[in-house]
Amino acid sequence: MRTTAANLANTVSQPKWTANSLRTGLIARKRGMTAMWDDNGARVPVTVLQLENCQVTANIVALRSDRSEYHAVQIGASDRPSRTTTAQMKGHFRKASVPPKYIVREFPVTPDAHVPVGTTLSAMHFVPGQYVDVTAKSIGKGFQGVMKRWNFRGLRASHGVSVSHRSAGATGAHQDPGRLWPGRKMAGRLGGKRITAQNLTVMRVDTDLDLVFVKGAVPGADDAHVLVRDAKKKLVTLAKAHQAVGAYEKVLPKGVDDLPFPAGTREMARNLPTVIEARSKRVTSPFVPRE
């Protein structure tokens, strides 16, 4: 049975990020794509993610079936009117002393990464140059054929092929085995599923507008909510692997000793510049003024 631990973050004994630490993620909104240019004139496509009053609504501690503890931080984002919120959720938000939210999600963390309830998180939770994973529901494209869904080449455009140029062709064998093997790539529903874009580079952080610029495309439609967290493969796993040789700092961006821990809050952002960019590649953009 789950229990809340609102005061658990006050007893944190390790305020510094380590290779064994797993931080909470953030809930952002995908605002669209734009481009940035480096000093060599190379064009870098980026996706703009914006935080909308992202706050901690609960700290969760649960006991698994194997008697191990499960720790998580519950995050809420995007304020909503009280009249459209259910009575149950009103009581939950009232207990956390935060306004009602449109979306509430929880992120698994390590026991030392709990964040006090009611804390407002900032875009500086992520450091320019680091890698993140972005999870969202992809855009649904309906029932599609094999060429669009699986990148099939299709059949020949001439020489005997009649009105079957985009078909899948032969899908099964003869009498043996006489059936289709499970997992055969065929026409069907495309998109509309929960998908994660992994190992995206954070190019820029704007603490004034709470913007996070990530390199490349992320799933989801514009203005859709997305979940952003530290890259599991390139940051979390590599940090633990390099810990064995005492060099886990190599997985962090150049010039960065550690990450904001247990989270990057709005209070911490007040002491930093408005726009923070990756040091390895200085990137300029005509859309966001630099300080």
TrEMBL record:
Residues spanning the signal sequence: none
GO cellular component term, pick one: mitochondrial large ribosomal subunit
Gene Ontology molecular-function annotations: structural constituent of ribosome
Superkingdom of source: Eukaryota
Main location: mitochondrion
Alphabetic keyword roster: Mitochondrion, Ribonucleoprotein, Ribosomal protein, Transit peptide
Subcellular location: Mitochondrion
InterPro entries: Ribosomal_uL3, Ribosomal_uL3_bac/org-type, Ribosomal_uL3_CS, Transl_B-barrel_sf
Annotated family: Belongs to the universal ribosomal protein uL3 family.
HAMAP family documented for this protein: Ribosomal_uL3_B
NCBIfam families associated with the record: L3_bact
Name of the protein: Large ribosomal subunit protein uL3m
Species annotation: Pisolithus tinctorius Marx 270
Lineage summary: Eukaryota, Fungi, Dikarya, Basidiomycota, Agaricomycotina
